[in-house]
Each structure stands twice: as structure tokens, then as C-alpha cells.
Amino acid sequence: MSAQMCVIQLNSQYYQRSTKAFEVVEELLDPCPMKGTITGQDILNEVKHVIMKFNLSLGKHCGIRTDGTPVMIGKHKEFTSLMLKYVSHEVITHHCIIRQQQLCAKTLQMKHVMEKVVSTFNIIRSNGLNPREFQAFLTEEGSDHDDVIYCLLAQQSGHSCQIRFPT
Description:
By secondary structure, the chain is an alpha+beta fold. It has helices at 40-53, 79-86, 97-108, 111-125, 129-140; strands at 3-9, 12-18, 24-31, 63-66, 92-95, 160-166.
């Protein structure tokens, strides 16, 4: 079974589908810069525009995954509630688990731990040889990961949503 997915993430819209071999293929569909105060209606209008522009079938829409920001969730004027009113069938909604973990970690603010993590990250990234040596070390150790990535998450810095359309 293959699927299509229209994704709005950090104000860009992507086309994402899974093949019969369950490989995920993603392409940038339509960058949509949104400035100023963004409402749920603004996001819904952008999603509807992309759905029509790329001829995606709204009847096959089966799920919405959000990052949990206030403009995305709610009962009345937020994107999720407006999208649920817009479609004529049942749609599953849930929040991205990874985003929840990031927000939880940011809220805990374990400064003493994060200082060590950032310091270690900066040492690894300080010159061109260190990252390659570290990647080789991870490979030798049989790590599930081939690199270390650090990203400071600005809470509610962008609005993220994935809408799934199975085909």
C-alpha cells in the first residue's frame, strides 16, 4: 500500500509518500512564507491551496500530526479543528512524539548536563578532522547512529503539521 502525505513544516509544504517497499520519499512541494500573526485559518488556507494546486485527493486524507503549538490544536479556530470541519470523514489527529520529548527536555532545563553536551559537541565540530574521526569511531563501535546532531529547540518557533493521504 502506498501513501501520499502533504506536510507543512516550518512554513514549507512537502509531498511525502511511502512506496510498496515502505520507503519514504519526500519532495518539497511549495514553500509558503507566512509572516506576521498566523492563525489556524491561514494555515488551513495554505493547505487547501496546495491540495488543489497538486491535485491531491482530500477524500483520502486520513490523519493529522501536529507539533502541539496553540495555533495548531484547539476546539474552535485552530488549524486541527478547522481541518476536521473541512473534511467529510473521520480523521485521526495526534501530536508528534519527538516534538513532545524535545519540549519536555527544554522545560526540564538540566543546565549542568546540557553544558557538558554542548561542550562535547563543540569539541567534535571544532575542526574538519574531529567530525570524521568521531564518525569513524561510531562506525567501529557499531553505533545505530553515524553522527551526533545538536539543535537548540526554540519553543513554538514554527508550526508543523503532517496530513496523510493514502492512495
